[in-house]
Design brief:
It contains one helix and two strands. The protein is largely without helices or strands.
Length: 72
């Protein structure tokens, strides 16, 4: 991905990319409490998934922080 951005002349942050998935927003817990809920969780396998790419930009607002595009 970074190579394609470079070739297209698009500036971006060169730090290592650490992918993540947001599964839940605005959940809160007591930071001092133990969190054993996923201690023995196995990897989750899925039959299929859809990749959407998101970014924030100058037009971002608190109500619409990211712009999303389907990959492909």
């Amino acid at each position: 991905m970074q190579q394609r951005l470079r070739e297209a002349g698009i500036a971006f942050d060169e730090r290592a990319l650490h992918l993540h998935a947001t599964l839940l927003r605005n959940a809160r817990r007591d930071a001092g409490a133990r969190f054993d809920a996923f201690a023995d969780a196995l990897p989750i396998e899925v039959a299929r998934f859809r990749l959407a790419l998101g970014c924030s930009d100058a037009g971002s607002t608190p109500q619409r922080r990211y712009r999303w595009r389907e990959a492909g």
